[in-house]
Design a protein that fits this description.
Layout (H helix, E strand, L loop, with lengths): L2 H10 L9 E5 L2 E5 L4 H8 L11 E4 L9 H17 L3 E3 L6 H7 L8 E4 L13 E4 L2 H10 L1 E5 L2 E8 L8 H12 L7 E6 L8 H9 L8 E4 L3 H7 L20 E6 L6 E3 L7 E3 L10 E5 H4 L2 H11 L9 E5 L3 H9 L2 H7 L2 E3 L20 E4 L15 E4 L2 H10 L11
Parallel strand pairs: 2-3, 2-5, 3-4, 5-6, 8-9, 8-11, 9-10, 14-15, 14-17, 15-16, 17-18
Antiparallel strand pairs: 1-7, 12-13
Helix pairs in contact: 2-5, 6-7, 10-12, 10-13
Amino acid sequence: MHAIEKILARAAGMKAVKTGEIINCKVDLAGINDLYLQTIRSFFEMGGNRVSDPGKVIVFLDHYAPASTIAQADNQKQFREFCWDQGIDLLMDIDQGVCHQVLADKGMSYPGEVIVITDSHATTHGAFGAFGTGVGATDLAIILATGQLWFRVPEIIRINLEGGLKKGVYSKDIALHIIGTLGADYGVYRAVEFTGPVLRDLGISERMALCNMTTEMGAKTAYIQPDEITTSFLKNKMKQDYTVFTTDSGYAYFAEHTFDVSNLKPQVAAPHSVDNVADVVKYAGKPINQAFLGTCTGGRTEDLAVAAAILKGKHINPRTRFIIVPASKSVFLEAMNRGYIQALVEAGATFVTPGCAACLGTHQGILAPGETCITSSSRNFPGRMGHGKAEIYVASPAAVAAAALEGKIVDPSDYVK
């Protein structure tokens, strides 16, 4: 079996599982974000009374942090009251940040775990060797009631990364290149595993971005085999033991692809599809109204460090606004202690509450008709970050910071130290 299949087999209490099989799995951690109040409604509509295991449920108030409408405020109020009534201690209120980063910060994402969240980018947790996947409100309500959920064992795609990255090229560029090559629907209900020597040069932050973006090719989950980088990150965070599963030799993948990234240049996904990918130089000179850095895809300390290095002692273009949303409180504090926040604020950046912010187009940086934004987030379909007639370009944090400086899309390689 593949390591992913072994994780599912353990969760299902089975010795073995195979591709296509429908199984019922115990869920180690179930997360609900504040977009999904329907989860609570469905729980009660199903006849639910008490959550089966409150200690395995975590609620994140991250998409509307803080609330900007009365409806959002009432939504969050109901979530808080549900947690208090049900004895759910893991309530991550509006100060905590994006769900995926919060789990990483708190050592709650670890190898061998089954993590299910009402957020499609739960694939991020493959960076820790966990099975992370996103579901809707009804499925999460079932977990609240029973502690379990059914899965179809997915086909597994292996993506092998060879070579070495040039200056100014990051895992976001790798992900965009892969999606542009294979297509936005290539991985639908399939798992994507990353392997190869390039991973040795990618820290946890970059691995999280890589796994996160598999959602944009439809993947059910993502996976990187835990190694010394994983254990080094977790050693001071973990409060429990965990099991590292390995893939049996001779395992037959559904498909295998090798990408040599040695000559890869900074990439960009142009409107209006994340697989509309090209070298960023193709769009060099395109004026931008807003640069957006942050969220679960590109808002970690390392991303803010890249931006601060590009902008320190300089100032953003006077016709461009630069909005930054740290992925979590921990990221915000660490970046503050390292001087990144001061450097970016002095350069003209506007910081907002850790969370999702403009990524989902509800508040804190939404776009007007006809505006153009370059973003380190994950999606660029019409209306994603505001008005349907705005244009969104998806790129690396370095490309976002360099564009904020110049007021137009540029090749970030010339700006990275």
